[in-house]
């Protein structure tokens, strides 16, 4: 469960109060949790409670007020999740899921989620056994949804029978099994694809204790690797010196200098997809000192020399069935410079951002990017978490999702 992304849907049944404990169990196990609720669910448990426990905003409306890119939030949430879990699931929302109705954030997410879906129906005994409800549950199961049947016990009506929501511990265990089963099958839209991703900075040694580097934390590249692995890809992550944990299912190669990263990238240059998100140094000292340069010494002449242009080399060697994605960090004339880099280095896509923009660039949990393609696409995404940016890059550039479903300017 550690590192997994759980999207919890809560509907308006009395058993909704149990979801507070369910969120706590997921968080304790190391999962990330986001919550979507139907409007009636807040009658039984408040968004404030679940938001506090999940440490994330709770979504109830399809169009949150005063939020940039709010109309695509259901798409972002659906792409973000490893598991979409609806607990409790009322008869009303069950019928909407079967019919494809889309009148809340929860039902909208249900239509966009590409991850496994699990539902935990809970209602009164006679409702639960009604032929319409049973037929709807069978329909969901036939579509590949995991249906965790209700338990037998005392119900809110005072009756005793089947319809009780299982305990949070039992739901947690079943959700873990669903995630484990998905991981073991190696399925997903990128199954069978080899993807190489570079991340983080490089360090160019001046002497044994000093180096030239930059502020890159590697977050963007690690989120890309995590998202690709969740989609079933065979991922190699070439990482400069960063302090991030390796995402599940990812093979990591640690490097230090631009030369090290160049060698590692060229070794895997035949991958199906290469995404160069690392901030590679453009220059390196020609003759680094083998001894520490003393402060009392005369100002040292670093005599910088250009490093190998990894992206250009990959672009030159790119074969027809290969996809090459680069990044452009620009402070001036961003679109012009990014488009030039895209063409000069024979890229399929380039991701442009500006470190001078608030919430973008190095050292932030968010990013504001524009994607440019060799075919003329120009897709400006709103400011959003880097994890969501990674999802969008994979969907647009790698999987070829229709840009109109993500581009807020369309």
Describe what this molecule looks like in 3D.
The structure is a single chain. This protein is α/β, with parallel strands linked by helices and 410 residues long. The chain folds into 2 domains: 5-185, Rossmann fold; 194-405, 3-Layer(aba) Sandwich (Rossmann fold). Helices cover 32% and strands 23% of the residues. The protein is built from 13 helices and 22 strands. The protein has helices at residues 19-28, 47-54, 73-80, 91-99, 105-112, 125-129, 131-142, 168-185, 219-230, 258-267, 310-317, 334-344, 386-398, and strands at residues 5-10, 32-37, 58-59, 83-89, 117-121, 146-147, 151-154, 160-164, 194-199, 204-207, 210-212, 234-239, 250-254, 273-276, 283-285, 304-306, 323-329, 349-353, 366-367, 370-373, 378-380, 384-385. An 8-stranded mixed sheet has the order 13-12-9-14-17-18-20-21, sandwiched between helices. It has a 6-stranded parallel sheet with strand order 3-2-1-4-5-6, with helices on both faces. A two-stranded antiparallel ribbon has the order 7-8. A hairpin with a 2-residue loop joins β10 and β11. α1 runs parallel beside α2, α3 packs across α5 (105-112) and α3 (73-80) crosses α13 (386-398). It is elongated, with a radius of gyration of 25 Å.
Topology:
Layout (H helix, E strand, L loop, with lengths): L4 E6 L8 H10 L3 E6 L9 H8 L3 E2 L13 H8 L2 E7 L1 H9 L5 H8 L4 E5 L3 H5 L1 H12 L3 E2 L3 E4 L5 E5 L3 H18 L8 E6 L4 E4 L2 E3 L6 H12 L3 E6 L10 E5 L3 H10 L5 E4 L6 E3 L18 E3 L3 H8 L5 E7 L4 H11 L4 E5 L12 E2 L2 E4 L4 E3 L3 E2 H13 L12
Parallel strand pairs: 1-2, 1-4, 2-3, 4-5, 5-6, 9-12, 9-14, 12-13, 14-17, 17-18
Antiparallel strand pairs: 7-8, 10-11, 15-16, 18-20, 19-22, 20-21
